Amino acid sequence: MIRTLGRAAALAAAVLAGAPALAADSAPGLTIVEPYGAGSVTDRVIRLLEPELEHQTGYPVAVDHAGTEALARLAAAAPNGRTVIVVDLLAVEIAEAAGEDGVKLSALTPIAKLTGPGSVALVVGEASPIKDWAGFASAARAGTLKIALPGRVSTAGVPLALMEKALDVHFADIAAANRADILDALAGKRADAAFLVTATLLPGASGAAPPVRPIVTFGAARNPGLPQVPSFQESVGKPHNSITTAIAVFGPSGLDAVAIKRLTTAFDEAGRVAKAKPGAGRLAIEIGDAALLRETMQRDSRVIKDIVNLLH
Predict the structure, then answer these.
(1) How many Å apart are CA 243 and CA 5, to the nearest integer?
(2) Which end of the chain is more exposed for a tag (fewer CB within 10 A), N or C?
(3) Which of 35, 37, 7 shows the shortest CA–CA distance to 182?
(4) What percent of the chain has pLDDT over 90?
(5) Which residue ranges form the domains of the chain, and what is each CATH number?
(6) 47: confidence class by pLDDT, cuts 50, 70, 90
């Protein structure tokens, strides 16, 4: 699930103060730090790129599902091009703009943008009596619904705030740190609904679709893989009620131009090969270099203030 990086910056500060680099950096290989867990959209993108990344770099690829320690792991890594982090870009931008735990993209080295824009979806459990947006809206107005998400200062917090504004209601938050927690909260009926990355709702090479029912998606238009599911702005009849993000890869501070070029080339070639694989279209694989990633970040910054204000 999309989420912010939380307590990682506090650990990163200690690392930057003088802690030794990770032992993994001393061994040949490429370590990809991933905060959101197995089955998340970032994990799926990595797994799709992994075989060709290994071919391009000549190193085995190890994926470190580091959770809230993700930034600390990256900060601990030597700037030798052997450790990178793959994140939901908007989640980190929101966390930084909100001043959460000192998260700063300026402390990272942009490498590449890995996907085009992707959306999240509002979902309920398969056994839920809620069948569509009208049913969800009616249930929300009849009583407080519980929504599973990693926190309001996150990408998932934006659609939550948009729904509260549109329906003039307030939802109860159920803390769910990752995709597994969200699915568990829905299955155990501790939450009435939740948000998942839309691409992860589609069956593919990595497994079957999860046991949930999508109600609306939050992109500007319907997702081609879920043509029967309306967009949120379509459902409420108001434009400019969409939110999308991209998956991006960053290196630690101090990474030199040679290492950046080497990594960007490796990811670019891996993306070219991955586009021919089943599931690539669902994940919107679209590799861009560090310059394009910076342009995306600059574009996001023009609207990020309004997004952060919406979360409070």
Answers:
(1) 19
(2) C
(3) 37
(4) 54
(5) 8-117+246-310 (3.40.190.150), 120-236 (3.40.190.10)
(6) very high
**Closest to 230 in 3D by CA, of 118, 121, 117:** 121
Tell me the residue type at 281. G
The letter for the amino acid at 282 is R
Share the mean pLDDT of the chain.
85
Report how far residue 104's alpha carbon sits from residue 102's, in angstroms, rounded to the nearest whole number: 6
**Whole-prediction pTM:** 0.77
Distance CA 183, CA 176 (A): 9
Residue 67: phi and psi, rounded to 5, are 60, -135
Q: At what angle do helices 157-167 and 290-310 cross, to 10 degrees?
A: 40
The 10 Å Cβ neighbour count of residue 220 is 17
Q: How far apart are CA 83 and CA 95, in angstroms?
A: 22
Is the distance from CB of 178 to CB of 2 less than 8 angstroms? no
Measured CA angle at 45 (ends 123, 28), to 5 deg: 140
Residue with tokens 């927690």: 181
